[in-house]
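User: Could you check the structure of this?
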Amino acid sequence: MLTPESLDGHFTLVTAAARYDALRLRDSLAGKPDGQPLSRDEALEMLALGEVIARKAAYGRQPSVRSARALGASWSQIGAAQGISKQAAWEAHGRWLEGSADGSGAGEGRERSA
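Assistant: Sure, the predicted structure tokens are below.
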């Protein structure tokens, strides 16, 4: 059975997105002349790949926020880049950055309202 866990090791974020995109395109064209419908297994693969993509993208979120903060981005800018408020961005990432053990100090001493 296809699960996100069974697919995760076989795909990078880029290859998972490419495969998902190919399946999604075929699915959207299935009702058109010459369209080839997905099989049940392919539809389930598309669902599992969506989860793989979401998980892989989420894994990189904290380091991306750390980089943005280290380069001087405000919480308002980080929130806007994620489609959330500055408060929500700080709540989601601020404590993680302050507790980061990487020694960069990227989250230390920064104000929430920055």
